[in-house]
Write a structure and sequence with these properties.
98 residues, mainly beta, three-stranded antiparallel beta sheet, two-stranded antiparallel ribbon, 2 helices, 43% strand
């Protein structure tokens, strides 16, 4: 499994992958934004890219938590991270709406 942590300047990309746009899922994976040198494709410009294997899961109600054993961590850039909270994207640490 790959986990991509986006930078604060990548909110548009996050919206595509959250399904907020009309871009079909299959098309998103054909874009020239992927680094396929690892076991799972990661975003080339991700702030942090984590690759690992799901070791366990825990389901509760409508959510499932996955416990991942990481095999690699790649960091890039010194930009702020991006989080989604209260229906808006925010820079990590600043909590100003983007």
């Amino acid at each position: 499994v790959a986990i991509n942590v986006l930078g604060s300047d990548q909110s548009e990309l996050a919206q595509h992958f959250a399904g907020s746009t009309n871009v079909p899922m299959a098309e998103r994976f054909t874009w020239d934004i992927w680094d396929e040198d690892s076991d799972a494709p990661t975003l080339r410009d991700a702030r942090v890219a984590l690759v690992g294997r799901i070791r366990d899961t825990y389901s509760r109600g409508t959510h499932t938590v996955m416990f991942v054993e990481l095999h690699s961590i790649r960091t890039c850039c010194e930009t702020a991270g991006l989080i989604y909270d209260s229906r808006n994207f925010h820079r990590v640490g600043e909590l100003s709406t983007i």
